[in-house]
Amino acid sequence: MSSAKTKSRQCAVQALYQWQMTGQNLSLIEQQFKEDQRLKNAQNSYFVDLFHGVPTHLDTIDAAFIEFTAREIEKIDPVERAILRLSVYELIHKTDIPYRVVINEGVELAKSFGADGSHRYINGVLDKVAQVQRKTEIEAKKKK
Question: Considering the entire predicted model, what is its pTM?
């Protein structure tokens, strides 16, 4: 993955975290990120897609991963919740990105922003979501 997309994901996770914690208007948060130059070196259009896509599809996203967690959505650490939501959004809506890349990016986000060991939790949940959401892609890879 390009470093610009990685930077977009990093900013989107931070923005989603802010949205989850404050309930602020998405456009206001997006504007803050642009004004603060946090999107420098990011692919702006991808950031916007991720940041606005997650809240738009929140019910579908949460439903796709909640069965693989032992906690209710609101009891999942807010950083982990933002990472899971972003990554599951990509697994569902960005099928041009290989599932292994999505999982790896989610794990790296957890290593950067999450608590110690949260990357293992993120990896486990995303792997299970991928088995459902990307079943055809996974089966095709196994046949090679």
Answer: 0.95
Q: Answer yes or no: are the C-beta atoms of 64 and 129 closer than 8 Å.
A: yes
**109, 86 in Cβ contact below 8 A?**
yes
Closest to 3 (Cα-Cα) out of 110, 106, 122, 105: 105
Question: DSSP characters for 64-90?
Answer: HHHTTSSS-GGGS-HHHHHHHHHHHHH
Domain hosting 121: range is: 3-143
CATH code of the domain covering residue 124: 1.10.940.10
Domain count, the chain: 1
Give residue-wise pLDDT tens across range 51-84.
999 999 999 999 999 999 989 999 999 999 999 9
